[in-house]
Amino acid sequence: MMQSVSRNCCFVNSLRSRWTPILSASRGVINRTELSFHSSAAAWSSQKITTQWADPAMQQYKFWNREESTEKGKYSYLLEISPESMKREAKILSLSGPDDDANTALHKGSLPMGAKLLGIGESLQDFDSYRDSKPNVLFVSPSCPRAMVQLPLVLAAFPTIEWVHVRSAGIDFVVCDELTEFRQKVQVTNAKGQFSSSLAEYVMMACSYFAKDLPRLMKQQQAKNWEKYDIEELRGKTMGIVGYGDIGRSCAKLATVYGMRVVALRRRPYLSKRDPLLDAVYGTDKASLNELMSVSDYIVCSAPSTVETRGMVNADAFTHVKENAVFINLGRGPVVDESALIKALQSGRLKGAALDVFQEEPLPLDNPLWDLDNVMISPHNMDQTSTFMHEATEFFVNENLPRFICGEELLNPVDIEAGY
What residue stretches are annotated with the D-isomer specific 2-hydroxyacid dehydrogenase NAD-binding domain (predicted)? Predict the structure, then answer.
């Protein structure tokens, strides 16, 4: 028995060990010549992290990625083998549509030890009977109508709530001025990392769509026309990524496999100083955006919709675009000045565009984008696998919820004021 306990203690201690790399802060453009390349874990062992907004290339990264995360189910297992690891209970309210099948893992599944679902509702009134239960966790899904209105009301009515988890990667459907009032009292996390790989695949498909001139190919096939034509390689081309989060980095990963050069723009460029996928990283100032537009053959917009980013890719940015460049938007429609984008496409300044998101969705029938031959339109579904939302809920149940119960740091922290 003592030997078994000893083994368990050693295992628990090993689970709690941490890689701790450090980042040095710098400003301006960071080029690949300044990047360090570290492929082995040992290279990071003597370094320490100083911020939760860590570089995705680092070992201690506080954001989830379903392909790369190496500690899947770690704390669920810890609770099973070591019940004394439970530091607190998780009493959960689910601000969701009651018929949302994607929430099955939470609403009908088996929860970790110490977790209890109190109730499901779409408004504050639906939770009235739980006021004495002192809930401390709030799960929010896009299936809740008017979640932006209801979330602050629920937080105000239940001051015991410590943690809000949003089932989607984008939190623009809940961010409002009222929510920022709770930023010091409540931690917010999201489902970042669940949708990145499918969107990265879409980006490479979009690049190939224009590089190989698939519209022409399909027309020739339909006409039974055997006519050869020149195509372009992606190898040697430059991909510019506006918004270098988990989705942007997944795009960079695939682009480098194709032999592309990758440059990126992000609010904190110093966090990607050592990212081996990047040839250069820029800040988010106007001059940096224009520089990225001017050097990129394929421009990927994966930025979230926030007060700072709305209309960020505007007419001035499109005047700096490289000749024959292709614009790909998979982040949020409001980040791009759609009128300026249409003009750039109509004038030939842009070779083409692949668009999965728009300012208004569904895209109105009278929108000029429908009639442009150099545009590939998809109905905001390029991350919509048959299981993608189910997996997002499972991440909450199997990964972050056990962390909360064990008193550990949560994955995917969100800055409410920044909007992501």
Answer: 209-380
Measured CA to CA, the distance from residue 321 to residue 344 in angstroms comes to 9
**Which tens digits make up the pLDDT trace of 266-312?**
999 998 988 999 999 999 999 999 999 999 999 999 998 888 899 99
Torsion sign (Cα): 150, 104, 69, 236: negative
Query: Are 238 and 256 spatial neighbours (Cβ–Cβ below 8 Å)?
Result: no
Please say whether the beta carbons of 26 and 270 come within 8 A. Answer: yes
The topology under which CATH files domain 196-377 is Rossmann fold (3.40.50)
Buried b (16+ CB within 10 A) or exposed e, 23-32: beeeeebbeb
Q: Which structure tokens are listed for 163? A: 């943690």
In the chain, residues under CATH classification 3.40.50.720 are 51-194+388-405, 196-377
Contact 261, 286 (CB under 8 A): no
Rounded distance between C-alpha atoms, residue 193 and residue 216, angstroms: 35
CATH superfamily of 51-194+388-405: NAD(P)-binding Rossmann-like Domain (3.40.50.720)
* Parallel/antiparallel/unpaired status of strands 137-140 and 163-166: parallel
Q: Token digits for 220?
A: 């020739």
User: Got the DSSP string for 224-264?
Assistant: T---------STT-EEEEES-SHHHHHHHHHHHHTT-EEEE
Sorting pLDDT into bands at 50, 70 and 90, what band is 195? confident
pLDDT tens digits, 318-365: 999 999 999 999 999 999 999 999 999 999 999 999 999 999 999 999
Q: State which amino acid sits at residue 289.
A: L
| Residue 268 main-chain phi, psi, to 5 deg | -120, 80
Q: Please name which of 140, 97, 135, 142 lies closest in space to residue 117, comparing C-alpha atoms.
A: 135
Cβ 51 vs Cβ 79: under 8 Å: no
pLDDT (average), residues 215-240:
98
pLDDT of residue 56: 52
**CA gap 139, 120 in Å, rounded:** 9
Cis peptide before 159 (omega within 30 of 0): no
Give me the active site residues, please.
332, 361, 380
For residues 261 and 180, which has the higher predicted lDDT (pLDDT)? Answer: 261
